[in-house]
Design brief:
The complex is a heterodimer of chains A (about 110) and B (about 120). With about 110 residues, chain A is an all-beta fold. Chain A is about 0% helix and about 55% strand. In chain A, strands 2, 4, 5, 9, 10 and 11 form a 6-stranded mixed sheet that branches. In chain A, strands 1-3-8-7-6 form a 5-stranded antiparallel sheet, with no helix packed on it. Chain A is globular, with a radius of gyration of 13 Å. Helix content of chain B is about 0%, strand content about 50%. The radius of gyration of chain B is 14 Å and the shape is globular. In chain B, a hairpin with a 5-residue loop joins strand 5 and strand 6. In chain B, the strands form 2 sheets. In chain B, strands 2, 4, 5, 6, 9, 10 and 11 form a 7-stranded mixed sheet that branches. Chain B has a 4-stranded antiparallel sheet with strand order 1-3-8-7, with no helix packed on it. The chains are: A mainly beta (about 110), B mainly beta (about 120). At the A-B interface, strand 5 and strand 10 of A face strand 5, strand 9 and strand 10 of B.
């Protein structure tokens, strides 16, 4: 059974600082996803990573994938308050259904 | 493109009644839709996979007689919570897998609806 773990679960960081969220998954995976969720809202797709070594960047967020280590990271550069949200990674394993990580609640303070 | 809608966005119902939630893919066809449940400050848990024209596949621990799923067309899946109880109060999110593509080949990616907040009193 595929298990997806994220850490940290909660992250409070100051504006302008950098930090990384980690996502480990337990079995071989075809795809790794990152989503953002604002309070009371559904998911917003951020990135989909398809192959080992894949790196994608959008604004202050950068995601990478290491399939050998079964690890994905979401790096935040020079955080701003607007990035405050909960971030989820999710993996398909070798099936078509998504298994979500525990989520990381990010709070960016002034 | 790739828009998924849910209706209603929120609903309050009395204990013992049933409530139906609709999930529609607006600009693509979805042979497969997924239903998730999310409790406050928790992650999304897959409840079932809805396949057009066939029975849904439920995850372990999900009561199929309580959560009825119907996927009657390539753009619509419904989740009916029967005899709802307060513990069924949750945020229900559907997703639809693009099997036809909005422009160009299908992506086979899942697109998420905006969610339905159910409160059972």
């Amino acid at each position: 059974e595929l298990k997806v773990e994220q850490n940290p679960l909660f992250l409070s960081m100051q504006e302008g600082k950098n930090y990384t969220i980690y996502c480990n998954y337990s079995t071989t995976s075809d795809r790794l996803y990152w989503y953002r969720q604002d309070p009371g809202k559904s998911l917003e797709s951020l990135f989909v990573l398809l192959s080992n070594g894949a790196v994608k960047q959008e604004g202050r967020l950068m995601a990478s994938l290491d399939t050998k280590a079964r690890l994905s990271t979401l790096h935040i550069t020079a955080a701003v308050h607007d990035l405050s949200a909960t971030y989820f990674c999710a993996s398909t394993g070798t099936a078509s259904k998504l298994t979500f990580g525990t989520g990381t609640r990010l709070q960016v303070t002034l | 493109g790739a828009v998924v809608s849910q209706h209603p966005s929120w609903v309050i119902c009395k204990s013992g009644t049933s409530v139906k939630i609709e999930c529609r893919s607006l600009d693509f066809q979805a042979t497969t839709m997924f239903w998730y449940r999310q409790f406050p400050k928790k992650s999304l848990m897959l409840m079932a996979t809805s396949n057009e024209g066939s029975k849904a596949t439920y995850e372990q621990g999900v009561e199929k007689d309580k959560f009825l799923i119907n996927h009657a067309s390539l753009t619509l899946s419904t989740l009916t919570v029967t005899s709802a109880h307060p513990e069924d109060s949750s945020f229900y999110i559907c997703s639809a897998r693009d099997a036809t593509g909005t422009s160009g080949p299908p992506s086979y990616e899942q697109y998420f609806g905006p969610g339905t907040r159910l409160t059972v009193t």
